């Protein structure tokens, strides 16, 4: 019998000879495969040609005895060896020069840019993308959602209703917070809007009431929607806002922390004061409001539900815009929700996180208008093929605040068109 490795050298296959002992582990491996082959042939012959049992046993023991020393002597005494794998070459013999292997040089072994101009194209950040969160004077205005809050006659689980509840939404004057607040009002809740921009919060509260009246003509029992100033990153400001809300509503049952923002700078040149502000609003602000509401619920001995608005950026790294501090902040929000869920579970307070993907708010629309290349890059990576709308969060937030999710706590609900599963 001829060894596959030695045959090109016209060597006979002698398992115990010196050639074999100093041969590579590949040879040893193949030798063992051949041994197994011999064993199975012996068995096959025994069945097919009715070989006597002692002959089969003799052949098998002979094969094993010859193979065993080969393994022990050929294996290197120390050091780590890669597990052996062997793929038979198809047709042409492979070149020994790695530079001439087209797959190797296009995938693992090539210098940057050698294989194509698309290397890493959809998996890298681009430091030239720099987007600052605009000042309030440049913020685009956003109308309230239309046609989502009217009475309807579709049967639905009563558990989804938020009637007789008071919900607080931070960052509720615009964007996702405004639309989620509208969803809560449509589901029966009263609402306290908290925002840094009190004027906008007040006009949002008035618009929500007006829209509700339009969509529910003849309804006398109007929701109580109020607006309050707070800088969520400031503990004193949060305490003052809490006292104001309790004075107007008497109680708080639910909280949605939507105050937050993102900015894009490459990490090395990220202005430190802006990074601190970003973490202050997204992380400290979420934490401060959550502990204040939990304290109130614990004192009242009332159950409650908190939804923290994180982002898919807390689980993945967005491309091409660089935003390391934001991504880290949203990962913190997600794990804060899980941690507080455990801490407050005994008080009947549930804490969950919603991680939206790319949502088309008035602000993201402005960003896309100013950076049109981002639009195609973003949508190309979303399995649903489309960005979400703020209205897509109405049901998710209502579900997590309502009794429909009574046994759900510490969860992260991703509303991202499938972005994070690819
Ligand atoms: N828009 C998206 O595509 C998207 C995606 C994932 C996550 N998010 C997250 O959703 C949340 C809402 O984002 P958005 O797109 O609606 O933003 P937005 O800028 O439209 O609205 C944010 C609101 O928060 C308020 N705010 C900012 N700082 C505050 C502070 N210190 N105290 C109180 N209020 C403050 C703003 O005045 C504004 O009304 C953010 O946490 C954001 O990170 C947004």
Q: Can you count the helices?
A: 12
Strand content: 5-15%
> Structural class, from helix and strand content?
alpha/beta
Which strand order does the major sheet show? Answer: 3-2-1-4-5-6-7
Instruction: Give the overall silhouette.
Output: elongated
What's the order of the H and E elements? HHHHEHEHEHEHEHEHHHE
CATH superfamily of the largest domain: NAD(P)-binding Rossmann-like Domain
Terminal CA distance reads 50 Å
Weakly predicted, low-confidence segments: 1-89
Provide the helix percentage: 40-55%
Small molecules bound in the structure, each named once: nicotinamide-adenine-dinucleotide
Largest sheet: 7 strands, parallel
- The domain count comes to 2
């Amino acid at each position: 019998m001829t060894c596959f490795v030695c045959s090109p050298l016209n060597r006979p296959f002698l398992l115990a000879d010196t050639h074999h002992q100093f041969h590579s582990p590949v040879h040893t491996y193949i030798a063992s495969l051949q041994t197994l082959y011999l064993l199975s042939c012996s068995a096959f012959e025994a069945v097919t040609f009715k070989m006597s049992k002692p002959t089969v046993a003799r052949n098998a023991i002979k094969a094993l005895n010859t193979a065993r020393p080969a393994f022990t002597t050929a294996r290197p005494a120390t050091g780590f060896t890669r597990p052996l794998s062997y793929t038979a070459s198809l047709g042409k013999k492979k070149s020994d020069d790695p530079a001439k292997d087209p797959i190797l040089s296009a995938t693992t072994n090539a210098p940057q840019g050698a294989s194509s101009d698309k290397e890493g194209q959809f998996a890298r950040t681009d430091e030239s993308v720099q987007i600052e969160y605009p000042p309030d004077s440049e913020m685009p205005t956003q109308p309230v959602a239309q046609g989502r809050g009217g009475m309807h006659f579709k049967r639905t689980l009563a558990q989804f209703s938020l009637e007789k509840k008071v919900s607080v939404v931070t960052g509720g004057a615009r964007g996702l917070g405004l639309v989620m607040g509208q969803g809560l009002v449509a589901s029966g809740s009263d609402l306290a809007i908290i925002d840094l921009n009190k004027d906008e919060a007040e006009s949002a509260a008035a618009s929500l009431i007006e829209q509700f009246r339009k969509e529910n003509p003849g309804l006398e029992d109007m929701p109580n929607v109020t607006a309050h100033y707070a800088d969520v990153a400031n503990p004193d400001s949060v305490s003052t806002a809490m006292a104001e809300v309790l004075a107007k509503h008497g109680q708080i049952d639910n909280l949605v922390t939507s105050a937050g923002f993102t900015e894009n700078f490459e990490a090395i040149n990220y202005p430190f004061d802006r990074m601190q502000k970003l973490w202050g609003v997204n992380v400290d602000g979420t934490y401060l409001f959550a502990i204040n509401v939990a304290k109130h619920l614990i004192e009242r001995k009332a159950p409650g539900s908190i939804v923290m608005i994180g982002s898919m950026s807390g689980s993945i790294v967005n491309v091409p815009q660089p935003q390391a501090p934001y991504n880290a902040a949203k990962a913190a929000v997600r794990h804060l929700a899980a941690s507080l869920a455990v801490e407050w579970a005994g008080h009947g307070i549930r804490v969950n996180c919603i991680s939206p993907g790319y949502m088309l708010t008035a602000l993201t629309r402005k960003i896309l208008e100013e950076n049109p290349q981002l639009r195609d890059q973003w949508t190309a990576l979303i399995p649903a093929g489309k960005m979400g709308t703020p209205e897509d969060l109405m049901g998710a937030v209502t579900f997590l605040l309502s009794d429909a999710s009574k046994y759900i706590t510490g969860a992260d609900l991703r509303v991202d068109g499938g972005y994070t599963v690819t």
